[in-house]
Fold each of these.
Amino acid sequence: MIATMGTQLGLAYAFVEREIALSKRYWAWEIVWLVYGIVTSLSVAYIGLAAPAISGGQVDDAAVSRFVLYLLVGTIAWRFLGIIFENIGEVIAWERWEGTIEYTFMSPVPRLTHLLGMCAATLVRALAFSVGILACVALFVPVDLSHANAVSAIVLLGVGALAFVGLGIASAAFPLMWTEKGLQMAYIVQAVVLLVSGVYYPVDILPKWMQLLSVISPATYVIRGMRAALMDGADLGSLWPEVWPALVVGALSVPLGLRLFIAVERYAKRTGRLKRSG
Amino acid sequence: MATEIATRTSEPVVTTFGRDALVASGVVKAFRSDNKTRRAVDGISLRVQRGEIYGLLGANGSGKSTLIRVFSTLLIPDAGDVRVFGLDVQRDELAVKRLINRVSVEASFFKKLSAMENLVYSGRLYGVPAAEARAKALGILRRLGISSSRVNEPLEKLSRGMQQKVAIARAFLTAPMLLLLDEPTTGLDIRSKREVQTFVRDLRIEHDATILLTTHDLDEAERLADRIGILHDGRLVAEGTTEELRARYGASGLEDVFMTATGRRLEDADAPEETTP
C-alpha cells in the first residue's frame, strides 16, 4: 500500500518537474503574466484610493483604506483561484498544442495520478504568483493587515483551491470533447464565475437571477470569508458559514470532475479525438 | 501458465500469453466525418510472436496508424479483441501500457525542453529514476549518432531527423516488451534511416523486444521484418515472410507482391492521410 502510494507520488512528481522545467524555458511568459497580475491588481487598488475623487463625497481615510483592502483581497484571491482554474483547465489544450497528448495518455500513469501531479504543480504556481503580486502591490499602496487572521485566510484559500481543482478538472474535459472550441468554453465558465462571485463588489447588488448563480460558486464563499479574515480578523469558528459551502463544492466537484474527465477520455478514445492537432 | 513480467511503475504484470506478444481478432474501427462513415480498420486479425519484428506495409490511409493507436490504447475499437501478452487492451489498459511504447511518425515532444529533459520526464512516467534515465538516454542517443553536446539544447533547435531519433530513444528508454514503431524513419535521410534500422535490429536481440513496425518503405520492411502483413483499405490482404509472399504471388520482389495483392503500386496508392477527426 505504502509502496504503491510512493510509486504514484513518484509518477505525479514527473508532472511537477515537467511544469517547473517548462516555466524555466518559458520564463519570459512567466514574467509577462506576473507583470500583468501586478498591474491589474494595482489598477484595482487605485480605484479604491480614488474613491473620494470618483464619488465626489467625503470619504475618510479609514474608509478608503478599508475599500482598498476590500478590492485587493478580492483581486488577489481571484488571481489565486483563477490560476488554478486556468492551468488545470488547460491541461489537455496545452498538451494538444505541444503535440504530446498521445504520449501522456499512453503512459502507464493512472488519470488520478496525472491530474494530481498537474494540480500540485498548479498550486505551487498559483501561490507563488499570488504572494509575488501582493508583495509588489504593497510597495505602491498602503495595505493594512494589522487585524488579519492569517490562519483563517490560509484555510479558506485551501478550501477554495480544492473547489477550483474540481471545477478545473471538469473544464479540462471540454478540449477533449471539442478539440477546437473546448478551451474557449472553459474560459466562459471562468468569466461567469468572476461575474457572480463578488470579487469586486458584494453579491447583493447583482440581479436576483445572478445571485442564484453566486450561491453555487465556491468563489463567493472563499472571497467573502477571506475578507472577513483579513479585514476583520474573523476566526475559523465564525467563518464556518463560508467554509462549509465551499467544502461541499470541493467534495462534490473533485470526484465529479474526475468522473467526467474519465468518461470524456473514453469518448475521445472512441471517436479519435486524442489524435494530436494544432 | 501465468507469467510474471517485471515493470518499473508498480507491481509486476501477471499474464498468460504463450508465444504470442500481440493477438488482434476482427478489429474494426470506423470514423464519422461530414455525415460519412469510413472504416479505417476493417476486420483485421493478426498475431505477432514474442521476439518477432512484424512489418505492416501499406500506403497512406490504409489503416496502419489507426491500428497502431488501437494497439497502444489510444483508440477503442468498434469491434474485435486485442490482447498484448494475453492482456486485454481495454480491460487491462494500465497493465498493457506498462508493457508497450510507441514511436509515431511525428516526433511529439515539449519543444522548448531539451532532449534530456523530455527523456527524463518520459522515463519518470514509466518509473525509471531520473539518474538512470539520464545515463541510459545518453547511451541510446550516442548509438543513434547524437552527441552528448546536443542533448541539453531545446528540441526545437534539433533537425527533424534528430528529433525522430530522440523519439526512438524515448521508446527504448522504458525497455518495452512490445514496441510499436509507426513509420519511425519517415523523413529521415538515408544515413539516419540505416542507423535507426540497425539500432532497432540490435535492440531486438539485446532486449528480447517484440516489434510491430508500420512502414510504406518496401526496403525497410524487407530489411527489418521477420514477417510482413500488407494492409489495403483497412484490410490485411496478405501476410507471410518475404519468401512466402514472393512464392505465393510469383513475384520477384516486395513491390510486385504489393501490386499483385492490392492491385496498385505502393507509390500510386499513397492517398492523403487517414481522416481520423
Amino acid sequence: MSELPSALLARYAGATVSDYLQILKPRVMSLVVFTGFVGLVVAPGHLHPVLAAIAVLCIAVGAGASGAINMWYDRDIDAVMRRTATRPLPAGRMMPGEALGFGVVLAVGSVVVMGLAVNWAAAALLALTIVFYVFVYTIWLKRRTPQNIVIGGAAGALPPLIGWAAVTGDIGWGAVALFAIIFFWTPPHFWALSLYRAGEYAAAGIPMLPVVAGPRETKRQMLLYTLMLWPASLAPWLLGLAGPVYAGAVAALSLAFTGAAIRVWHDDTDRSARQMFAFSLLYLFLIFSLLLVGHIGGGAR
Amino acid sequence: MAGEDRSQRERAMRARNRALAAVLVALVALFYVIAIVRLGGG
C-alpha cells in the first residue's frame, strides 16, 4: 500500500467510514425507517419476521442511497449554505464520483434484495421512491419551483406504502392514508425551516417559498396545509386502522400543530418558526407511534 | 508533516477496507438467511 503514488493516495484515501455514513443522511433515514416500519406493522397480513427485518433494512439503505445521490448532485449549493457546508463533498473530504458510485450501488442493491427477499411490488415502490427523490425532486424541481417540497415531498411519503406492500403485495387505502399524512405534513415542516433559513436558500439560488413569495404567503400556506392535515391524520381512524384513542390524541396534536402555524402567522421573529419546525418532527413521530402502539396493543380496530 | 498526512490517509484507507469486508460478510450472511427463510416457505 505504501508503494502507491502519493497523488493517488491523496485522491482516494480522504473519505473516512464516518463520511460514508454521513452522506446517507442518517437523521432523515431514521424517520423514513420508522414510518416504513409502521406501514409494515399495521398492514393486514403476516410477513416472516426475518423478511420484515430485511424489508426495513432495504428501506433504510434505499433512503441512504437517495441521500448520497442527492449530496452528489447538490454539492455546489451545499457549499454555499452554512447548514450543509461541512458535509463530506463540499468540505472536500470525498470525491464526487465516490458519493455517486456509493449511492447508485446501494440503490440498486436495496431494490434487488427487496425484490428477491420480500416481493417485487415493494421493490418497485422502493425504486419509484429513489427515482422520484433523485430525478423529480433533486434534479428537476428543487432549483426550479417553490413547489419543490410539495411535489417532491411525495418521495418522503412513500416509505409506509413500501412497508405495507412488503406484507400485502399491493397498496390498500390504509397505506394511502399513511402516505397522505406525510404528504400534507411535509410543506409546513420544511417551510418552517426555510422561514428562518431564507437568506441561505436565497444565496444558494434555491426558490423556496419564503424566498420567492415572501414570509407572509409562506405562513398562509403553512396554515392551510396544517388544516388539510386534519382529515389526512384522522383517516386511519375513519378507515378502521386505528381506534378512538388514536382519534382523540391526533385531534389534540393537530390542534397544537395548527396553533403553532397560527403563532407563526402572528410572529415577525424566527422564534415561532423554529418551535414549529421542532414540533413538526414530534408531531409525525407521535402520530406514527400512536398507530404502532394501537396496533400492537390490539385495541386499535 | 507529509509523513503524518500519509499515515492518516493510510489509517482511513484501512478503516474503509475493514468496513467493506464487514459489509461483504454481512451480505453473504444476508443472502444465506434469505435463502433459508424462502426455502422454508417464509
